[in-house]
Amino acid sequence: MTDNILTKRASKPASKPSTPTTHWSQKRTFTIAIALFGLIIVLIVMTLSVMKYETHLSTGDTVLLELTPIDPRGFMQGDYMTLRYDLERDILERLATASDRDKPSDGYVIVALDEHNVGHFVRLADSHQPATLAYNEKAIHYRRRHGSIQIATNAYFFQEGSAEAFEAAEYGVFRLNDNGEPLLASLANEAFEVIEPKERSQTPLDNPPD
Question: In terms of domains, do 131 and 187 share one?
Fold first, then answer.
């Protein structure tokens, strides 16, 4: 009888252990799924950023700011021009008369637009309040960092070999959204025409002030 019990136990099939191959295959599939999900999120964010940029360019109000360009110089795959805006000096001069406690790191500069959409300094404001603006005034957001003022980008990139055309730049052409955020769209010459390099013609500015 004992022999029969041993025989039955010996004949009972053992449970099949999970193989390492199956484990690593599942882990690899999970890793790929996570990577694809992350890629999709990145693509969505990039697409939304591009759409926001294009909307800003197409719907923003046109504002010209007088600038003092630095000589163009080569930069990797193209050329760029370093820019400084006269409005930055106006902001610093006004802040110099305020106490340190009254100097916010961020604020708004109110400009009045002339017949060519050129913005001229009027005053500073701590917040964006469109209801307080005159019909020809715009509020432009600025930042104060390490004793300097940043209105927008301080560099304009253009196609390599086009530096000579942009030496005539007198104004930065901005598109201003409803939040007062400026986006540098192009440069304009002393005749308030957008500078287009080489064979491309110069395009008069549109979108006059309300």
Answer: yes
Of 4-18, 53-67, 191-205, which range is least confident?
A: 4-18
Q: Residue 156 and residue 73: Cα distance in Å, rounded?
A: 11
Strands 137-145 and 119-125: unpaired
Write the CA distances from 145 to 126, 129, 150, 172, integer angstroms: 16, 23, 7, 21
- The residue-averaged pLDDT of 59-68 equals 88
Are 163 and 79 spatial neighbours (Cβ–Cβ below 8 Å)? yes
Task: Return d(Cα 85, Cα 69) in angstroms, integer.
Answer: 8
Q: Which of 11, 31, 59 is the last residue of a domain?
A: 59
Q: Is the pLDDT of residue 207 over 60?
A: no
Query: Do 198 and 165 contact (CB within 8 A), yes or no?
Result: yes
